[in-house]
Amino acid sequence: PSPICSTSVTSAKIQVNGVHLHYQQTGEGSHAVLLLPGMLGSGQTDFGPQLKSMNKQLFTIVAWDPRGYGQSIPPSRDFPPDFFERDAKDAVDLMQALKFKKFSLLGWSDGGITALIAAAKYPTLIHKLVVWGANASVTQEDVRIYNGIRDVSKWSEKVKKPLEEMYGHDYFAKTCKAWVDGICHFAEKSDGNICQQLLPDIKCPTFIIHGEKDPLVPQAHAEYIHKHIKGSR
Fold it and tell me: Helices 169-184 and 157-167, interaxial angle, to 10°?
């Protein structure tokens, strides 16, 4: 293929589970990889550098916008108790609709949680797993941190600007509040569980990355995930 082909990024929508999911795709490698964005994120806002620079001979790279995020609107984003499971099913069904038989997951933050659930529930489909900034439960300390970002007017300009440009101020502000309410619901359970019970079901090679200065996710979460996924690094 010409150099132009090999580096171009396709942007498209495909119907999955009754919604039109937007995704970007690039590369022609035999190893298919799905990039899963974090809260309020999209393929473009969260994975611009990866779409541009990941090895396109080795990988076929897909970055998706979960329902209600990025360009996968409508529907508006909501946060029912099973929103992570819903995202996991959407993600896997998207890759199957795109005809990938087996693929790896790279997920950060909420996308990391979604990736953990997908790897546990669809073990025959997931090749490898990389997560960063993910958590399998919500503690009272987490609730305190999440409430600190409820009001988007307090966010730094750098983080806020691309999201305001993508969503408009009202949708961005409203969805952030709804996310905080949705994620804090998990803390109402005695163990704050999101997906702790699923971690032992993850059989694929798993790599866990954590930022020491992550302001939103304390490091104990990464250590818990590592301890409960057998053979993870």
Answer: 110
- The CATH number of 14-137+194-228 is 3.40.50.1820
Q: Can you give the residue ranges of every domain in the chain?
A: 14-137+194-228
Q: How confident is the model at residue 7 (pLDDT cuts 50, 70, 90)?
A: confident
Flag whether pLDDT at 155 surpasses 60.
yes
* Averaged pLDDT, 76-80: 98
Residue 64 token pair: 């998706």
Q: What is the DSSP string of 48-71?
A: HHHHHHS-TTTEEEEEEE-TTSTT
Q: Read out DSSP for the chain?
A: --HHHHH--EEEEEEETTEEEEEEEE---SEEEEEE--TT--HHHHHHHHHHHS-TTTEEEEEEE-TTSTT--SSPP---TTHHHHHHHHHHHHHHHTT-SSEEEEEETHHHHHHHHHHHH-TTTEEEEEEES--SB--HHHHHHHHTTSSGGGS-HHHHHHHHHHH-HHHHHHHHHHHHHHHHGGGGSTT-BSSGGGGGG--S-EEEE--TT-SSS-THHHHHHHHHSTT--
Instruction: Tell me: pLDDT of 96 over 90.
Output: yes
pLDDT tens digit sequence for 97-130: 999 999 999 999 999 999 999 999 999 999 999 9
- pLDDT reading at 79 higher than 50: yes
